[in-house]
Design brief:
Elements: H1 3-16, E1 18-20, E2 26-29, E3 35-38, E4 43-46, E5 51-53, H2 55-62, H3 67-71
Length: 104
């Protein structure tokens, strides 16, 4: 697993839980089935939200940090180094369900 994949693995695991089998290319969020990690390429895909990217994209789009704050997150891949600082607001996505009118 490359460094980006290790960082993303820790971030996703902290935020939503991560299911990842040893030797598998893919990891999948426990909470959001469309949030997956490609461990070979070091990028995540959150298909239902239309977000794809590296750790910087994850921090700005998922954790909603500013670009400057996201750049200052340590690159240490240990879970404690990537923890959300105490007092930081964390935003979570609420799934949007679209209902089509019945066609009769």
């Amino acid at each position: 697993m490359n460094t980006n994949a290790e960082i993303l693995s820790n971030l996703i695991n902290q935020d939503f839980g991560l299911i990842s089998k040893e030797g598998s290319r893919w990891g999948k969020s426990e909470e959001h089935s469309s949030l997956v990690l490609d461990k070979e390429r070091g990028i995540f895909y959150w298909n239902s939200e239309g977000v794809v990217g590296d750790p910087l994209v994850y921090l700005t789009k998922v954790r909603r940090l500013t670009f400057e704050d996201a750049k200052s997150v340590p690159t240490d891949t240990s879970p404690s180094a990537l923890a959300v600082p105490s007092g930081t607001k964390v935003y979570t996505f609420v799934p949007i369900v679209m209902v089509s009118p019945a066609v009769g």
